[in-house]
Amino acid sequence: MLTQQQSDWLDVGIEHFNAGRFWHAHEDWEALWISLKGNASQELINGVQGIIQIAAMLLNHQRKKSRGVVSLWTKSSAKLTPVIDGLFGLDIASLYVDSEPFHLDVELFLLDATNVKIGFHDSENE
Fold this sequence. Notes:
CATH superfamily: TTHA0068-like
Distance between the termini: 20 Å
Strand content: under 5%
CATH topology: Hyaluronidase domain-like
Helix content: 55-70%
CATH architecture: Orthogonal Bundle
CATH class: Mainly Alpha
Shape: globular
Order of helices and strands: HHHHH
Number of domains: 1
């Protein structure tokens, strides 16, 4: 379904995200998102935008920007809910659950964003 370039943007974004380089993940996934516009379903386009917003939310959390964290959580939640069962094989449900506590941690900033990882569904269990 994805071109080689689109798959590369997805995969490199995942590598950056899982290494805690949220800005870089955001940039890679933004290139994917732009390439999907007009060529994919709105649900997929919104789903990619949702993972971009999760990366931006975690970056804002690291920078202790409460307003950005709360705003981006609200936006990303709406976009990820329709693809909660998966997006290009990604385990969106786990990403959602692991990211959710961050919008509640905007007073103390005790959580470590680098603990949030994005992975793929285990095809053996589907």
